[in-house]
Amino acid sequence: MVERLTVIFFIILCFLLGMYLILSPWDALFGPWGDNALLALLADKTGAPIIQRTVASTWFRGAVTGLGVLNILIAIWELTHFNQSVKLLEVENRVPKK
Questions:
Q1: Tally of domains in the chain
Q2: DSSP-derived secondary structure for 27-38
Q3: DSSP readout, the chain?
Q4: Per the domain annotation, does 84 fall within a domain?
């Protein structure tokens, strides 16, 4: 039962993380992507304002969105191979460790 819950929670985590990574760079709901306080502090401390410009660029936003799509694909793959993943976790837990 623990193995099933582990796989279910992993699928949920991948799906939610993927949705966040897809939406957050483009939507103002999560706050301004390129103008957040942590990013401004990082740019000031390192003395490299190019960091803030790079994160605010559409290329970087597209890369983050691509990671979100990858997470969604991982969730779909895990969902389609659910029984196989559970069996692998069950076998791994049964093997005595030396």
A1: 1
A2: -GGG--SSS-HH
A3: -HHHHHHHHHHHHHHHHHHHHHHTTT-GGG--SSS-HHHHHHHHHHT-THHHHHHHSHHHHHHHHHHHHHHHHHHHHHHHTHHHHHHHHHHHHHSPP-
A4: yes
Quick check: is 6 in a domain?
yes
* Phi, psi angles (nearest 5°) of residue 4: -65, -45
**Global confidence as pTM:** 0.77
Domain for residue 43, yes or no?
no
Whole-angstrom Cα Rg for the chain: 19
Q: What is the pLDDT of residues 32-83, one digit of tens each?
A: 777 778 888 888 888 888 888 888 888 999 999 999 999 999 999 999 998 8
- Range(s) of the domain holding residue 66: 2-30+58-94
